[in-house]
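Can't attach files on this board, so I'm pasting raw text. These are the components:
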Amino acid sequence: MASVEDRVGSLVEKHLGITDRALLDAHTSELGVNSMDGVAFLKAVGQDFGVDIAPEVAAGFASMRDLINHLEANAG
Amino acid sequence: MLSEAAGSWFRLFYESGDIIVTHVDLAPHAQREARALAWLDDTEKDRWRRFRFDRPRREFALCRAALRAVLCHRLGCTNTELAFGAAAYGKPFAVVGGTALPFNFNVSHSGRHGLVAFARGRRLGVDVEDRSRSPDIGAVAGAVFGPNEQAELRAAGVSQKARLFLRLWTQKEALIKACGTGFSMDVSEFELPETMRRGMRKGVFRLPRVPNFVWCLENIGCADFAAAIAYELDQRRALQLEAGHVL
Ligand SMILES: CC(C)(COP(=O)(O)OP(=O)(O)OC[C@H]1O[C@@H](n2cnc3c(N)ncnc32)[C@H](O)[C@@H]1OP(=O)(O)O)[C@@H](O)C(=O)NCCC(=O)NCCS
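---
Top answer:
Structure tokens for the assembled complex are below.
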């Protein structure tokens, strides 16, 4: 079974076109992801992990690492 | 001095009362980017450096320099006097000599198009979406639209779907940018006025969660891009408009 980090890394690559895994630790403001791609990406993450990520929760993620930590704590 | 003169990358796009919208050409252009970068202060240059990709770097530099030029022109201040702060959720505001200015603005960029909207003393938001990029409607619609909006999208013919989607998207995003919350607000919780969904260019709107503020919504899109602005109305004007007076 792939780790949460690997699954998020693959979704980041597929939906945001970011292949460099080191950027999972970059601040989201450095990535320049536009909101439409961001919404589509979060929906794909929600489907893959079977969770709903509320917009106000997503707004608090400073990096993909925060998203990974959130999924590790909350996805079943 | 940067200006909207010929040869520049920004020009007046729309004007109505105290609302001004400047269009910024975001096509890759090394000389323009170098000129724009020279206009930024140290904090902005630092941010520019931290972007990991060329596209957001270019969007930021070209739009921020255009914003600086228009603000300096309108406010009669110099570029070095001008700085920016950010409110909760990151909405920037302008500061001169340590004081926030009663001149509001908002920036949006997409593909080759940037828009910077300005208003005197009232909150506003702008959103632009380049029509040359096809939106992934299926992936996004459920997360951002209410039941009626989704039904109207499903019913739209193939040729109209992308246009309707971008019209609704830009109006919703302009609203949440005017409020300053961005997508921390769940935009599927409210629906746009029916008149605007049907294609009216201008309408009045109250967000159900904060009904004491009244917003004017305008579709300012054109053939190349979808775009909308939302700006705060005073109560008297809002009541007139809601009572059916011509917009
Ligand atoms: C504000 C927001 C809607 C912008 O989305 P985007 O697709 O990058 O949109 P645009 O190109 O239209 O706008 C970018 C500009 O909006 C402005 N902006 C930033 N935060 C803003 C806010 N909270 N409200 C209004 N405007 C804002 C900035 O000027 C920015 O341009 P700049 O950084 O070059 O100066 C989005 O970033 C957002 O929702 N942020 C807050 C909540 C959040 O982070 N949610 C994550 C879920 S995706």
